[in-house]
Design goal:
The chain is of the alpha/beta class. About 45% of the residues lie in helices and about 15% in strands. The strands form 2 sheets. A 6-stranded parallel sheet has the order 6-5-4-7-8-9, with helices on both faces. Strands 1-2-3 form a 3-stranded parallel sheet, covered by helices on one side.
Length: about 260
């Protein structure tokens, strides 16, 4: 059983108790019969272990580092990114409600000489675009939309700071470990996080960024300005991102999965 999230706690099931109860019954029935269970981080593994009294292995869903290194480097000019501004990146395939995107946009009201680059898609994109228009932020926020992986890497590499601002609104988010965190690290982009448990553990262990204390837009803006005003710390974080990338990659993580699968062969 391979669980990439705490499935019965995903937001899509929280407002549908019938479906949630159905999936919960399925879990209760199958878990005692499972020989091998693995999931994507220690927090989720601990929850499953305590609830179903089974051993749960951890294999984190971390991207291949070689996927980034094989992508051609291109200039900011080629990507239509200003060279005279700090670049703040918010990327993902699920830029949805409670992911902190609205607050990130609002924070740009208080930040000068920076561009928020929003790359990807999600259910709040229309809201974000209206906010940008209503707040007069067209020179401070740029929407890129969904792009192929290679192009995403090319954008991310030019970031000065990567955002992962998911809110602690449900258990699934609370223990999440998003791919974009590792995408930022592989691109040597320091991280500003909302401080969710699994993300904070990596930020603290490798010293690759900082955490906000609240989702108040002014607080987020102040934190970003504080980071950009401390060039020495920013350089250290970038250096540490490179070190972290040498450890946090699928080339290393897959060894645990291969070891697990080898028991079937």
């Amino acid at each position: 059983y391979d669980s990439h999230e705490l499935f019965c706690e995903v937001p899509e099931l929280q407002n549908n108790p019938g479906k949630k109860n159905l999936w919960k019954r399925i879990e209760r029935k199958i878990f005692p019969k499972l020989k091998y269970v693995f999931t994507v981080n220690d927090s989720i593994a601990e929850i499953y272990s305590e609830e179903y009294k089974v051993e749960v292995k951890v294999v984190r869903n971390i991207p291949l580092f070689s996927n980034q290194t094989n992508v051609k480097q291109i200039t900011k000019e080629e990507l239509d990114i200003p060279s005279d501004k700090k670049i703040i990146i918010l990327q993902g395939a699920g830029i949805n409600i409670d992911r902190g995107a609205e607050e990130a946009v609002s924070a740009m009201q208080f930040i000068e000489d920076a561009l928020l680059l929003i790359i990807g898609s999600g259910d709040v994109m229309d809201v974000l675009k209206k906010m940008v228009n209503d707040l007069g932020l067209k020179d401070k926020v740029k929407f890129v939309g969904k792009v192929p992986f290679e192009r995403l890497v090319q954008y991310t590499r030019h970031g000065d700071l990567g955002l992962t601002l998911d809110k602690d609104t449900n258990i699934n988010y609370r223990y999440s470990l998003p791919n974009k965190l590792f995408d930022y690290l592989h691109a040597e982009v320091p991280v500003l996080s909302s401080g969710l448990m699994e993300i904070k553990k990596i930020i603290d262990e490798y010293e690759v960024g900082a955490c906000i204390q609240s989702h108040d837009p002014k607080h987020i803006a102040d934190k970003i300005k504080e980071i950009f005003n401390d060039e020495n710390t920013l350089r250290l974080w970038k250096k540490n991102c490179k070190i972290a990338s040498g450890k946090l990659n699928w080339e290393n993580e897959e060894k645990q999965l291969i070891e697990l699968y080898s028991k079937f062969l």
